[in-house]
Write a structure and sequence with these properties.
The structure is a homodimer. Chain A has about 100 residues and is an alpha+beta fold. Chain A has helices at about 15-25, 30-40, 45-55, 75-100, and strands at about 25, 60-65, 70-75.
Chain lengths: ~100, ~100
DNA sequence: TGGTAAATATAGGACAGCCTATATATTTAA
DNA sequence: TTAAATATATAGGCTGTCCTATATTTACCA
């Protein structure tokens, strides 16, 4: 089989990062661990940090560096974007979830 | 804003195709319309057909041609793959739905 | 019959999400 | 103070999801 789940299940990393940060501020390693809890696998550094960089560059998150740790949190824009994204996500995939309960 | 929803929300087209086909068999245009109902936008032909081709090549769906229509349905393998994919999906994103109700 | 519409297909390009590998900075431990 | 561990960063490559544009096949209608 070509993909782990039969079909491609990649995607929405940045969405998941925003969602996690809406719960509490975190640094990179904490984000990686939270994703691992959900997906079963930790995104590699080369996957996660470029995504964080991009989200920062477009102004959806901000990071405060203290020592070797950078603590990320949502900006106001990030919060609003996430609201729209969640709505789109639920409209697109909500029934999949409903269906399997 | 770079993306429509602030963060990237692309992805999981093949997953959604499999899920739709688990409800009933459909041809390409019907699949496109069902996706439009959910996402708000119809995938373009150049997006949808290569995805269908790939799913067929890896044996997750089969297509029966009658005239200009090709009716797609899941194979047994496709059904099993979808089951795994749904489980992964719910584990990864289920709380996003829970959260927004 | 001939032309248009509908459904499918393919080419070619952009970009996000994935990886491995390597590098840098900071902290901790020996 | 030096070595190892931790956190972040970057380079380079692959693939799926997106697009536009073009082509092909089949159906339908004038």
């Amino acid at each position: 089989m070509k993909y782990k789940y039969g079909c491609d299940m990649r995607g929405m990393l940045s969405f998941q990062i925003l969602w996690l940060l809406s719960k509490r501020q975190m640094h990179g390693e904490q984000i990686a661990k939270e994703i691992e809890k959900r997906r079963g696998e930790k995104p590699k550094a080369g996957t996660l940090y470029p995504a964080l960089k991009e989200l920062k560059e477009v102004g959806l998150i901000k990071g405060i560096k203290r020592g070797k740790l950078i603590t990320y949190s949502l900006t106001q824009t990030g919060r609003e974007s996430l609201r729209h994204a969640v709505r789109y996500f639920c409209r697109s995939f909500g029934e999949v979830f409903e269906d399997s309960r």
